[in-house]
Fold these 3 entries.
Entry 1:
Amino acid sequence: MIFHRERLSPAILLFREFHAGCYIRSRNHPDPGPGAAVPERDYPIIVHFVPNSLMQTIIGQDIAVAASLLRKDALVAIPTETVYGLAGNALHEAAVVAIYEAKNRPRFNPLILHVADIADIETYAFVDAVSRQLAQAFMPGPFTLLLRKKEIVPELVTAGSDKVAIRIPAHEVSRELLRRVGFPLAAPSANPFGYVSPTTATHVLQGLNGKIPYILDGGPCQVGVESSIAEVSGDKVILHRAGGISAEMITAVTGLPVVTGVHTATPSTPGQLKSHYATRIPLYKGDVPALMKQFPDKRMAVISFTRSYPVATGSHLFILSPASNISEAAQKLFATMRRIDEMDVDLILAEDFPDTGIGQAINDRLNRAQAIHK
Ligand code: TXA
Ligand code: MG
């Protein structure tokens, strides 16, 4: 949408000036705080203009506000137990297009359909017996099923595929929202394409400020990594993305072997992008002492599961779970990566995590965040 200055109301212009003013910061002088004497300006003023600053992004806890915006095809960031999602009415093309645009996401990468209850799945997809078993075992929860879609699901949601990915978030705020609106929500993770997924409302704001009207704050996400994506295919189950529900758990329910999807740079199956979840600061994964030797004189942030490593001055150690709890490590992973990304270090080094259960999801995300894939 293009706005012509002469057509904007004085109130909007005022808001624009005010909004820009909020971002005036001095390079050397921090904000002196209210009531303090304003120092002589002997330093350069840096003004950051926020693109699309006409839209003010609000964080709140009001499900009614979120529902009303979604009914008007506006986008709302929603809390789930995995990560925050960027939601819009999955049945309205205008809302779905807006999701791709706000995230800057290529249209070949389809969106997950979020519904409130297991009974809703049949409205949008054909459900075979094994998929039904999996739905009953793992939904609501960090689990997405890839199913043959019904006509009602727009191709824009599935990026032209005849399959649709469906999930029921295990977060009461979002389930209540889904029940109130009565339509399914298309919702990718609420981050600009390629960056680390958000696990708090503040993370969403950092990436999408000015691009969406409302962030429904449901607290920090409890699982912390995105859902597992599974597809029943003949006498096996394909695990397209590792997440909170592991291959072992799927086999325990179905009695079927699980094969894992393959990551590529140009995916034939979407959801398999090799470079993803990438931090701004280059990340290397593997044997930490060996990597430390490989990069002498660099300031680094080290991400470990429980182990302590000696780090030099200017470097930092982030132990995700001193108590060796892999779920706790998963929950903290993305917040830690984001925090490090704002620090003054040259590199991020990450350990190989135990490759069982949700540890597989941690390894998958860290592998794809690596500098070598950029
Ligand atoms: O936990 C989650 O799944 C979160 C929360 C918000 O629900 N959502 C999420 O969405 O991670 P997104 O868009 O960031 O990742 C979904 C993945 C993508 O890699 C996409 O390619 C894949 O699912 N996907 C979605 N629909 C698909 C389809 N029809 N066929 C194959 N892959 C699909
Ligand atoms: Mg994502």
Entry 2:
Amino acid sequence: MKSRAAVAFGPGKPLEIVEIDVAPPKKGEVLVKITHTGVCHTDAFTLSGDDPEGVFPAVLGHEGGGIVVEVGEGVTSLKPGDHVIPLYTAECGECKFCKSGKTNLCQAVRATQGKGLMPDGTTRFSYKGEPVYHYMGTSTFSEYTVVAEISLAKVNPQAPLDKVCLLGCGVTTGIGAVHNTAKVKAGDTVAIFGLGGIGLAAIQGAVQAKAGRIIAIDTNPAKFELARDMGATDCINPKDHDKPIQEVIVEMTDGGVDFSFECIGNVDVMRAALECCHKGWGESVIIGVAGAGQEIRTRPFQLVTGRVWRGSAFGGVKGRTQLPGMVEDAMAGKIRLDPFITHRMPLEQINDAFELMHQGKSIRTVIYF
Ligand code: NAD
Ligand code: AHE
Ligand code: ZN
Ligand code: ZN
């Protein structure tokens, strides 16, 4: 079938809106009509060419919501008409990772996913007869996409897809990192570096966890109003200080924070986020994605003296089992999605959404088809 899609033809090039061909779903696959998709910084990261897994041409996008159109052979858990959120972290329930009870990082389709292919090693997308690659197993920048059954969370059909699409990545990642990875408890002091969609969601998670003090850090002070609205108790611009930001935070917190979250993808900030943690017990969670060749550094003494470095993917959330509940929470007002949506625009304007993000003028743009 034909589908309007924003195709990334090469690194650093604007997306092109073209009509691609989408082949029917094969065994264990599902054809989904995407109604809405957010634009996450990770899409921009891959488009920039910094992603070692980036392949071109590809249909990017991984923060979508849609409706099942057709199911392939053997698909039993979904049927046409079901409302779904595509998952870049699948949940097969059967692999070593799923069964471990220790991680959400299902590996059932991860190897082919990282190559831009469906689990059978081929692509369902083509343009003018040439293959176009998938992205993160989701490719939500296409009106029609093909996704593995195990990479789809079935959600309440009453849920507004133009909002809950944000649970496909940003909001779930930030909230989940606080609850599942850090396990923030009432009264804890937290520092959140980077106040985009992920950082603001982490603030929301910290509020839910009843954190005592929530310190929000960004070099763009325009982000502070929304951070305060979300529940930040302190907002800091590192540019306002002539000493390293970790020193500023250690001084203002009587020795450091209980938990910090890096929501930027900057390895220098990752170091600051670790080093602003309290001696003996402070834990820092890396959420931001850094480019090929980047490495983190600190003095090992920082770890010897009890600080802990962790990482979090999709907030540690198991998509098929946990995301439907988070959608219910959003419908019940327990998760706020509206403040994240600063812009809405049709697919044709998707490059403007990337531009707004780069200029620091948006939190999330929701694209409709
Ligand atoms: P965003 O661009 O909307 O937000 C980033 C924020 O960081 C901006 O407000 C920017 O002003 C701020 N910032 C930039 N440099 C800074 C610095 N040196 N000090 C302080 N603040 C600084 O991005 P986003 O969509 O919120 O994504 C944030 C990061 O999280 C990206 O790296 C993205 O790839 C990553 N991410 C990871 C996961 C995961 O599962 N681990 C999921 C989603 C996104
Ligand atoms: N492909 C990159 C890594 C990208 C990455 O870290 N992705 C995050 C999700 S970002 C969503 O906005 C993630 O969940 N990673 C776990 C996984 O299995 O991909 C690289 O460096 O190769
Ligand atoms: Zn994302
Ligand atoms: Zn699995």
Entry 3:
Amino acid sequence: STKAQSSLTIGLIPADGIGKEVIPAARQVLEALPSDLMPAKIQFEDLDAGFELFQKTGTALPEETIQALKGHCDGALFGAVSSPSHKVAGYSSPIVGLRKKLDLYANVRPVLSAAGAKTASGKTRPIDMLIIRENTECLYIKDEELLTDKDGHKYAVAKRKITEFASKRAGQMAFTMALQRDAMRREVTLGERIWKHKPKVTIVHKSNVLSITDGLWRETVREVYESNSEFVKSVDIEEQLVDSMVYRMFREPEAFDVIVAPNMYGDIISDGAAALVGSLGLVPSANVGENFAVGEPVHGSAPDIAGKNIANPIAAIRSAAMLLENKGYNAAASAVYRAADKVLASGKYLTPDLGGNAKTTEVTEAVCREL
Ligand code: ATP
Ligand code: MG
């Protein structure tokens, strides 16, 4: 996170499908923030990217977009990209490109219960955890090989890379965010605090099996903790093997605060966690690097409902709040989270994915009125 400045420039990249509906919704909410909550003036810049753009122009992530983001934007909001069902020559996903170009090395996913939403189990449970997924390595280096042994039998091998460098910065981010969340809960005592304890970071690994790779991950994250006296004083740590992590997360999600995991485990845990709170249309994320963050709803471009004004805008609105939080505007971020919660809790403005019949624009306007 960075210190709040007096003006903030946000690049808006709606990209494809419902991205074109939920990103304008998020913008409208940011524009509705009163100045006592949001001291900085927000400037928006519309930027192009996406599969539809690729089909029109042959490029999915134009150089101008990258230059604008690197040059004068403080952060960005990304909608969604359509994934073509078959491999298209020359096309690669623009969000994956952005993560690389801007070195957004962690994917941060808050999993937050909402009073008005039904969960997978039908019950509403108080959940407020933050999953930090390392975003650059592990099995995602995609170093795979299909081979044949001397008897002609096929076998396949995948390499998994864990570096001290990436583990260190993921760890650093986890402890820093644990403190930041705690400060935000204290500073802005809005609503009921779900996590009432000392900040806690849970390190996920499987070093009983992968003692070298996960061993390096676990030791490096622990070292980050032990070498910082503020972390040691103000944050608790625990470890969970990834399998028991999943088991415990479903049994007692309220037992977790911040969770930090290597890429592949983080991917699996965070989709599982999204199921605990209901619709995909509720779950935000942020891609975070040293000086830059890109808010991005977890859902895709949802071609089945695109252009009908029925997409749930809450995930995008919450992603905008994450961006504010990352930039140090805690009061504004909290207000947006709370306004979204109130609209959900009232049950009056729910999109079809949550069993209602409200339009995207009606939900957005309701959130703006709450602000
Ligand atoms: P993509 O290839 O872009 O991921 P997809 O077809 O997988 O597209 P997703 O966006 O991943 O679509 O959505 C999966 C399902 O969840 C779809 O049926 C979609 O309509 C629904 N969905 C996703 N996001 C939302 C939302 N914001 N509001 C309502 N429904 C949503
Ligand atoms: Mg999808």
